[in-house]
Design brief:
5-stranded parallel sheet
């Protein structure tokens, strides 16, 4: 899996650090963006194997960004996992209805994120 790339789109440094540590342990390449607009641009340029998308982002939110990525022919087949603190009843269904391929609620455990990332990249 060393040739695989994961794009992390999150505006919270601690969340990026945690996700980065999981991805680096797996020997994967990492691309990072602090907002949705940059994340969409980087996804189109680098075509990562997986995108970890925060939902609460400044400016454009993650749900809108997912919709844009899934409409674009270049990026529509890249799996997107929503990372969010929205964990109330119905939130997962609403977020997954935007077209994301997976969901993990914050705060998450390193092992849980590692298993999720591996499940998408081993396909």
């Amino acid at each position: 899996m060393e040739d695989k790339t994961v794009l992390i789109i999150d505006d919270t440094p601690n969340n990026i650090i945690l996700a980065r540590s999981v991805i680096q342990r797996a020997g994967l390449k990492i691309i990072e963006a602090g907002n949705a607009e940059l994340g969409i641009e980087l996804a189109g340029k680098h075509l990562p194997d997986l995108i970890l998308m925060d939902i609460q982002l400044p400016g454009m939110d993650g749900k809108e960004a997912i919709a844009i990525l899934k409409k674009d022919e270049k990026t529509r087949n890249i799996p997107v996992v929503a990372m969010t603190s929205f964990a109330m009843k119905g939130d997962k269904e609403e977020i997954c209805g935007t077209g994301c391929d997976g969901y993990i609620s914050k705060p998450f455990h390193i092992r849980e994120l590692a298993e999720l990332v591996n499940s998408f990249l081993e396909k």
